[in-house]
Amino acid sequence: MTGREDTWAAVDAYLVEAFSLEDDVLVATRQACDAAGLPAIGVTAPQGRFLQILARMLRAKSILEIGTLGGYSAIWLGRALGPGGRLVSLEINPAHAAVARANLARAGLDAGCEVLVGPAIEQLPLLEGRPPAPFDFVFIDADKPSIPAYFEWALRLTRRGSLIVVDNVIRKGAVADPGNPDPAVLGVRRLNELMARDPRVSATAIQTVGLKGHDGFALALVVAGD
């Protein structure tokens, strides 16, 4: 890490302690992910609380997550649901899904949180027209070249007043370079083009820094539709 990145990480550590962001379940979830060899690419605790607050503000009763990894963000979001609420999380890797299911069970959320295994682009059409869709909140944290397609499906699976949040949309600033050939950057730029011109959403993106470096979230509020 650079000195600046060390500072970002130190601030994250301070925030976790200052706001008591992690309990034993969340710590055990991180440890289980590390022990299983999952990549350290999930949200941080401050980001998890941010997502949870957004879902609570919406009084979300149905949440869709695209990209489960080990279930850390799913626990944050699952805890935002009210009684009878449902979370559906999509994960392409069966081993990652198994870790996530165990972590959700430890958190006491397995009854209301379902992890579906398979490519998201194949799973998403299966959700259309059946409960718990339409979803009040969608969190997209999966392969970036595919996020334009995930966003289009998120619009089909939500309603007016729903919120769509996409992670990792700044790419250490690379998103600002129109000549960058990275497929992940191209996917994010395409997503931004879609959000900017689609009259069904009011959207923006924000930069973040922290333990995971320089990145950010896109947020799209669905303002038109059923």
Order of helices and strands, N to C?
HHHEHEHEHEHEHEE
The residue ranges in which pLDDT falls below 50 over 5 or more consecutive positions are: none
Backbone CA Rg: 17 Å
What class, by secondary structure content?
A: alpha/beta
Distance between the termini: 47 Å
What is the number of helical segments per DSSP (H or I, 4+ residues)?
8
CATH first level: Alpha Beta
CATH topology: the name is Rossmann fold
| Percent strand | 15-25%
Strand order of the largest sheet: 3-2-1-4-5-7-6
Give the CATH architecture: 3-Layer(aba) Sandwich
The overall strand count is 7
So what's the overall shape?
globular
The main sheet comes to:
7 strands, mixed
**What is the residue-averaged pLDDT?**
96
Fraction in helix = 40-55%
CATH superfamily: Vaccinia Virus protein VP39
In the residues, how many domains can be counted? 1
